[in-house]
Amino acid sequence: MGTAISVNPEQLLSFAEAGNDRYVLIEVKSGKSFTYYAGAAWQGHNFFNKDDTWKDYF
User: Fold this and answer.
1) Which of 1, 9, 15, 31 makes a 20 to 30 Å CA pair with 23?
2) Each residue of 13-35: pLDDT tens digit?
């Protein structure tokens, strides 16, 4: 299983872990919208089989 998230790099603060969970920490402002994209795939599916495929999709 693979997971991807795409956010504005200027908002990226850091990464965190808690148990088996992984987090991407971004800076957002109260009352302001922000955009992110997330997706997941598994080994048996060939659509997202390389990093570039994810980038092309977004």
Assistant:
1) 31
2) 999 999 998 898 999 999 988 88
